Amino acid sequence: MNALLSAQADAVCGAGYGERTPDRVNSRNGYRHRDLDTRLGTLDVAVPKLRQGSLYPDWLLERRKRAERALTSVVATCYLLGVSTRRMDKLVQTLGITGLSKSQVSVMAKELDEHVEQFRTRRLEDAGPFTFVAADALVLKVREGGRVVPVHVLVATGVNADGHREILGVQVTSSEDGAGWLGFFRDLTARGLSGVKLVTSDAHAGLVSAIGATLPGAAWQRCRTHYAANLMSATPKSSWGWVKALLHSIYDQPDAEAVHAQFDRVVDALAEKLPNVAEHLEDARADILAFTAFPKEIWRQIWSNNPNERLNREIRRRTDVVGIFPDRASIVRLVGAVLAEQHDEWAEGRRYLGLDVLARAQAVDTAVAEEVTEPELQALTA
Fold first, then answer.
1. Whole-prediction pTM value?
2. 14: which of 62, 88, 308, 330 is 20 to 30 A away, CA to CA?
3. CA–CA gap between residue 182 and residue 192 (Å, rounded)
4. Are 172 and 201 in contact (CB under 8 A)?
5. What is the pLDDT of residues 176-214, one digit of tens each?
């Protein structure tokens, strides 16, 4: 490695080490020692220094992976904008970016922004149809107008025609209202999202209305984990243990017919002692049992947003380091880079759903949702 680095330095200088020639344009100035972690251990690599400019062997020492470079640029931007603290200084030193200049940050940010923008705006029709879609939002903090305000990062994932999961889109909005979700899903459909049979999410009113307005042929599955928390809020604390057991018994049935029969028995059991809880459960019947229209072997993948929790944890692991973002562009840069990496891992991994069960799911008739009327659509975008 050192020999190759020395040869590269000779090529940049226009002459060999110690050689006198009129073609020389630069000269050596010692070495920078860098630790290179390999599967064989840590190696001490001597990188030649030049009297003019610098030599960095990108072919050997990859600075960081895409998401790590995004994190570096965000942290450096925070530092340069004067929002650093002692904790931020310590973080900067840990990442080894004490020598970053404004121009370097600008170059890094531009490279990432171009990649993330291409990823966020790519066409989707070639990978479709997307039989199953899941949507969720995360709240992050950003500095705007001299104060710290919360913003919402909207993320959607889907299962493509090949059975692999994909990141469909990511947007940053001021609030998780109907207008934000409507614009998000309109962007997805404009980019080619089609063939959606089921959308899984929480029961946010704006999100549910946006699904009905942009994907009228798709059914909606209310996340069972979110619903359990909603039901708990309507249940006396002393009764939650057995109510929770009854709720879980609904999902433990062997087929769709048994699920609906058990649902009826649970509602009847609750009606006498906890009528409010029974009414709450009955009102949510269609929303939490939408998964029963699809093959039994994929119920666990579609009846909740739990498969997205690992994705959310990965995003949080990176964003928690930053804490407060300097602007929205830095949020898109970091979150977009993390999602792009996860997208690549899913594409190279095993299928999330088999092609046979996916074909059977695509054949399910879900065109039972009522289309959103024009007055409702106007109210949603207001």
1. 0.74
2. 62
3. 16
4. no
5. 778 899 999 999 999 999 999 999 999 888 899 999 999
Residues making up the chain, counted from first to last: 382
CB 242 within 8 A of CB 254: no
Q: What is the mean pLDDT of the chain?
A: 83
Residue in the block written with tokens 């459960």 = 281
Pairing of strands 41-50, 147-159: unpaired
Residue with tokens 């063939």: 195
Three-state SS across the chain? CHHHHHHHHHHHHCCCCCCCCCCCCCCEEEEEEEEEEECCEEEEEEEEEECCCCCCCCCCCCCCCHHHHHHHHHHHHHHHCCCCCHHHHHHHHHHCCCCCCHHHHHHHHHHHHHHHHHHHCCCCHHHCCCCEEEEEEEEEEEEECCEEEEEEEEEEEEECCCCCEEEEEEEEECCCCHHHHHHHHHHHHHCCCCCCCEEEECCCHHHHHHHHHHCCCCEEEECHHHHHHHHHHCCCHHHHHHHHHHHHHHHCCCCHHHHHHHHHHHHHHHHHHCHHHHHHHHHCHHHHCHHHHCCHHHHHHHCCCHHHHHHHHHHHHHHHHHCEECCHHHHHHHHHHHHHHHHHHHHHCCCCCCHHHHHHHHCCCCCCCCCCCHHHHHHHHC
What count of other Cβ atoms lies within 10 Å of the Cβ of residue 143? 17
Q: What are phi and psi of 54, to 5 degrees?
A: -145, 160
Cα separation, 223 vs 302, in Å, equals: 9
Residues linked to residue 47 through DSSP beta bridges, in sequence order = 32
Q: For residue range 7-56, what is the model confidence (pLDDT) as tens digits?
A: 888 888 888 888 888 888 898 888 888 777 666 667 788 888 888 887 76
What is the dihedral sign for C-alpha 47, 110, 114, 141?
positive
Q: How confident is the model at residue 339 (pLDDT cuts 50, 70, 90)?
A: very high
Which is nearest to 37 in space by CA: 64, 55, 7?
64
**Location of structure tokens 């929303």:** 287
CB 295 within 8 A of CB 361: yes
Strand 41-50 to strand 132-144: parallel, antiparallel, or no bridges (unpaired)? Answer: unpaired
- How confident is residue 308, by pLDDT bands cut at 50, 70 and 90? confident
pLDDT of residue 377: 47
Give pLDDT, residue 372: 46
Decide: 358 and 199 in contact? Cβ < 8 Å: no
